[in-house]
Amino acid sequence: MFDIKPQTLQYWYKNFLSDYFPDIESNRWHPQKIETVDKATGEIKEKPVYVFKKENLGEHMCIDDKAIGHTGFSILSNNKTGKIALMIESANSKEVEQAMSLFGKELWRIKSISMDMSPTYALVCNNLIPRATQVIDKFHVMKYVYDAVGNARIRINKELTATLTKGKKKTEQDKETLSELELLRRINHAITQSPDKWNEEMTETINRVFEKHDELKKAYQISQDFKNWYDYRNHSKSTIQITKCLYQWYEQARQLKVFESVIKMIRKHEDEIINFFQHGMTNAKAERLNGKIQRFLSGNYGIKDKDFFLYRTANYFS
């Protein structure tokens, strides 16, 4: 038994143990298709919808993209169950909209939908489910905020590196600078966490860095103030109070240049970000689903047989 090659097991599973070929013959495997136009030739082609499950639609949904192989897939999943309702090999707004429109009136069941800041998905949802509340995923917003703190650290790092003496021989000042650069390297991940996640050693290291670099300390404090504003426990406040607190944070963040692009991004998606407090929705289940698919992908050593891999993915996750 243990001498059987993986290719042999794969062959048996695909051809005899699974329902792959019976499902193809009976049109149960991706029976839904959309039409696409080849830009080069103008030829109309059919593209399969790999997962189409009306029963997995619910009041609260997530839409996200996932790279499988060298192409991107759009995945609509249930925010409560984590099951896939729709999966198509495309991130094109027209194609995603065409695929989602196959659900027809069933789409009106959706009351809220969580997504990243992709204009593609915002456009699709505006066209198909305009009454559904759009919620920008908290993880993506916080990443932008923490990236600003990271950019402050990178700028300090570059400035210190520029002061080093060129050549192999190092001065006493160079040694101190190198030690400082090492401390900055160590706190790279910690400054994307709240202080309660730090151990004693990390707390001491960060305090040493903050004593020398006040701008980084301020940037980190601003990120934590935003995180506290973004806490779902604030949902008991009125929308006016929540918005007022956000505008106070804008004034605070404007003190540092590294937050300029973050403020622009948040202001652009302000309504969808504030909608988080109505439902407490995030893309956590969608991101977890992406992780499961990635582990499934790794366990199968890639997707040499793409269609069969997607068949197994559809059966397992929907």
Q: Can you describe this structure?
A:
With 318 residues, this protein is an alpha/beta fold. The protein has two domains: 6-137 and 282-317, Nucleotidyltransferase, domain 5; 138-279, no CATH class. It has helices at residues 6-17, 20-25, 93-100, 119-128, 138-162, 172-186, 200-212, 214-229, 239-253, 260-268, 270-274, 276-279, 284-299, 306-317, and strands at residues 33-37, 44-52, 60-68, 71-78, 84-88, 112-115, 133-136. Strands 1-2-5-4-3-6-7 form a seven-stranded mixed sheet, with helices on both faces. A hairpin with a 6-residue loop joins strand 1 and strand 2. The chain is globular, with a radius of gyration of 25 Å. The two termini are 32 Å apart. The model has no long low-confidence stretch (mean pLDDT 89).
Return Rg in Å: 25 Å
Taking the sheet with the most strands, its summary is:
7 strands, mixed
Looking at the overall shape, the CATH architecture of the largest domain is 2-Layer Sandwich
| Average pLDDT taken over every residue | 89
Structural class: alpha/beta
Helix content: 40-55%
Count of domain modules: 2
* Strand line-up across the major sheet: 1-2-5-4-3-6-7
Low-confidence stretches: none
Text of the CATH class of the largest domain: Alpha Beta
Shape estimate = globular
Task: Identify the CATH homologous superfamily of the largest domain.
Answer: Ribonuclease H-like superfamily/Ribonuclease H
Number of strands: 7
Give the helix tally.
14
Strand residues, percent: 5-15%
Order of helices and strands: HHEEEEEHEHEHHHHHHHHHH
Query: CATH topology of the largest domain, what is it called?
Result: Nucleotidyltransferase, domain 5
The separation of the N and C termini measures 32 Å
